[in-house]
Every structure is written in C-alpha cells, then in structure tokens.
Predict the 3D structure of the following.
Amino acid sequence: MRNLRSKRKLQESSSPLENTITKEGLMEKNSNTIESENNSPKAKVIESSSLSQKSTKKGHLLTKRNLQVSQSKKNVNLNFIRAVFWFANSHIAIPYLKTLLLKEKQKFTDFTTFLHENKSKINGIHGFLSMVKVEKNDTEKQIALKKIFQALGEIFVKFFSVNWIFHSKVENKQIYLNHRHLFLRRLKNPGEYLEE
C-alpha cells in the first residue's frame, strides 16, 4: 500500500519535461527542479543549466513527442506502400493497367504474378523501392513489370491518394497530405533513396 502511494506521489510531482528518451532508449530523470514562485505551487521550472540529458548525433534531444513523430512517419510510409500495392491489385487500376500493359507489351497474368511474388517486400520503404528500381541483372520482362508498377504507383499518388486519405481511418490527415509529394519523389527516383 505504501509503495502505491509513493508511486502516485512521484507521478504527480514529475513534470513532462523531466522524462526524455535518448536514441538508445534510456529513460533519464532530471532531479534539479525548482518550484516556481508564480501563481501555482504545482508548476515547476527546470533550470536550463542543470539539464543532464543526452543528445543524439545531430545534437537534438529525442523526447517522447519526437519519438512519436518519427514513429508516425514510419507508419505513413507503410500505409502509403500498402495503399499503392492494394491499388495495383484492385479493379480500379484495370483501365490504367490495360494501357500500361499494351505499352510495355506484357500480359495481365505476368503482372499479377509479379505482384504476388513481391508481396513480402511491402514491409518497408527499401523493399518497396527495390520493387521499382531497375537493377543491372533484371531481365527485360522484369524491367517492364517494374515500370508498370511504378506508373501505377504514380497514378495512385497523383489522383487517388487524397480520396484515400480523407476516407480512411488515419488520424493525422495533414501529415499524409504533406507526405504525398515526398512519396511521389521516392517513387520516381528510387535509386536516390536506396543509397541513404
């Protein structure tokens, strides 16, 4: 019982600025807090000179909020990847797919086989971009199928992604809208982003 009370007191007295997460995932508490003499005794101010928090390589402090933002960016990439893959498999893409298949002289069954074989690569941005990037050892058929998939991805991002964003269950719609252009650039030039 005593432990529960002491934990509650610690939770109530701790400030959200006291807890930070470094890149290594370590929790640190800043014990040098001073109660402000302003209106409320509950408000606490942290001395900027006494901060003993680790910083990342770039010199930025990785707080809980920054960690949530970076996690949401990963989710945005994964959601866009899944949406492009879903669009390429859907009946909505068939009119676009017909013209692209005629242009590249490929069969519909070859394209569906290509999608089925590469389904496991949609777990990350690098795997997805490797589906689009033309490599030296690719055959002409693989190059044509990659170009078709890349064109379908561009069509989705340009014409269908806004509708997808506003009719989906995503919470931060503005982040998704801003990320469309970055994702389109990655889709058009996959080689630049795979070298990072």
Summary: Residues 140-166 form the longest helix (27 residues). The CA atoms of residues 81 and 122 lie 6 Å apart. The longest strand covers residues 33-35. Confidence is low (pLDDT under 50) at residues 14-57.
